[in-house]
């Protein structure tokens, strides 16, 4: 197995933001994204997050919501 790991980290200021990650750089075939993302109440509780795992491919785009509060 020749796995390659790529890490992204996003932070925001005092306003909520939404970003889209374009995975066109990823190898062709089926890949996996493990996502640690702000939880529903993250703007009030900095310890709240959700973890998801999604299948992605070379053409995938993933929308990510960032809570306000300088995460």
Describe this structure as you would to a colleague:
The radius of gyration is 14 Å and the shape is elongated. It has no helices and four strands. The termini are far apart. It has 71 residues and is mainly beta. The protein has one domain: Immunoglobulin-like (Sandwich).
Task: Give the SSE map.
Layout: E1 17-22, E2 31-38, E3 49-56, E4 61-66
Antiparallel strand pairs: 1-4, 2-3
How is this structure best summarized?
This protein is mainly beta. Helix content is 0%, strand content 39%.
CATH evolutionary superfamily:
Golgi alpha-mannosidase II
Gyration radius, rounded:
14 Å
Elements, N to C (H/E):
EEEE
N-C termini distance: 34 Å
Structural class: mainly beta
Q: Report the top-level CATH class.
A: Mainly Beta
Individual helix count: 0
Name the poorly predicted regions.
Answer: none
What's the CATH topology name?
A: Immunoglobulin-like
Q: What helical percentage do the residues reach?
A: under 10%
Q: Which sequence of strands runs across the widest sheet?
A: 1-4
Cα shape: elongated
Percentage of residues in DSSP E strands: 35-45%
Largest sheet: 2 strands, antiparallel
Number of domains: 1
The count of β-strands is: 4
CATH architecture: Sandwich
Mean pLDDT: 83
